[in-house]
Amino acid sequence: MIQRVISSYPMRFAFVVGALATALLIVHYRLLLKRDTSLFRANRHRTGG
To answer: Which listed site, 7, 23, 48, 49, has its alpha carbon 20 to 30 Å from 39?
Structure first.
């Protein structure tokens, strides 16, 4: 039953779209985090703390 639902095209398409969206979100979050940490480091360095 479950395997038949997964093997059907619409479910597979939805799964692929969900996986792509999740991957994009993770990459975007990582880039955002990296930029924030670099900004934080620059600010801390400028204040001498």
So the answer is: 23
pLDDT in tens, 1-49: 567 766 788 888 998 999 999 999 999 988 888 877 776 677 666 666 5
Query: Two tokens at 27?
Result: 């990459």
Element (H, E) at 39: helix 9-47
Q: How many CA atoms lie within 13 A of 36 on its CB side?
A: 6
State how far the alpha carbon of 40 is from the alpha carbons of 3, 20, 26, 49, in Å: 48, 30, 21, 11
